[in-house]
Specification:
Layout (H helix, E strand, L loop, with lengths): L1 E6 L11 H4 L4 H11 L4 E6 L3 H11 L5 E5 L8 H9 L4 E5 L21 E4 L4 H12 L2
Parallel strand pairs: 1-2, 1-3, 3-4, 4-5
Helix pairs in contact: 3-4
The structure holds 1,3,4-trihydroxy-5-OXO-cyclohexanecarboxylic acid (DQA).
1,3,4-trihydroxy-5-OXO-cyclohexanecarboxylic acid binds next to loops.
C-alpha cells in the first residue's frame, strides 16, 4: 500500500513552532517512527508552504497512490482551490490536524476540505497521522 503524507504551510517548523500547541518533535523525527511502525506501507512525505505546490502534489498522487494524509495547515480554513483539487482526484484523502481545531479560534472550526475527504482526524498530536494511516489499513 502506498500512502503519501502532504503537509502544508508552517508544518516544516514543527519542533520549534508554538510547542505548547504542536509539541517539541520535528516531523522528520516522527516520520521515521511512523515508517518503522508500518514497514509494509510505502510511506512518503511532501511539505510545501505554497498552495499551488500542494495542489500539484494532490494531482500527482491521483492514481499513483492508494491514500493521501493531508494536513493543509491554515489552507484548510481558506482554500477553495485545495478543496477542488481533492474533489477532482479519485485517490481518497484523510484530513489531519495535530491540534484540536474545534477547541481553538472560531476561524479554525471551518474546513473547506472536509466535505471532499474520506474523514478527518484532529487533536491527537502527531499521532493524528498514525490514526489516519490506520484508517487506510482498516479498509484492506
Ligand atoms: C493545523 C491547524 C491549523 O489551524 C493551523 O493553521 C496549522 C496546523 C494542525 O495541524 O493542528 O497550521 O492544521
Amino acid at each position: 500500500m502506498k500512502i503519501l503524507i502532504i503537509n502544508g504551510p508552517n508544518l516544516n517548523l514543527l519542533g520549534t513552532r508554538e510547542p505548547t500547541v504542536y509539541g517539541n518533535q520535528t516531523f522528520e523525527e516522527y516520520f521515521s517512527i511512523l515508517k518503522a511502525k508500518y514497514p509494509s506501507v510505502q510511506l512518503d512525505c511532501f511539505q510545501s508552504n505554497v498552495e499551488g505546490e500542494l495542489i500539484n502534489a494532490l494531482h500527482k498522487a491521483d492514481k499513483n497512490i492508494d491514500g493521501v494524509i493531508l494536513n493543509a495547515g491554515a489552507y484548510t480554513h481558506t482554500s477553495i482551490a485545495i478543496a477542488d483539487a481533492i474533489a477532482g482526484i479519485s485517490t481518497p484523502v484523510v484530513e489531519v490536524h495535530i491540534s484540536n481545531v474545534f477547541a481553538r479560534e472560531d476561524y479554525r472550526h471551518v474546513s473547506y476540505l472536509g466535505k471532499h475527504c474520506k474523514g478527518s482526524v484532529s487533536g491527537f498530536g502527531l499521532k493524528s497521522y498514525d490514526l489516519a494511516l490506520q484508517s487506510f489499513l482498516m479498509d484492506k
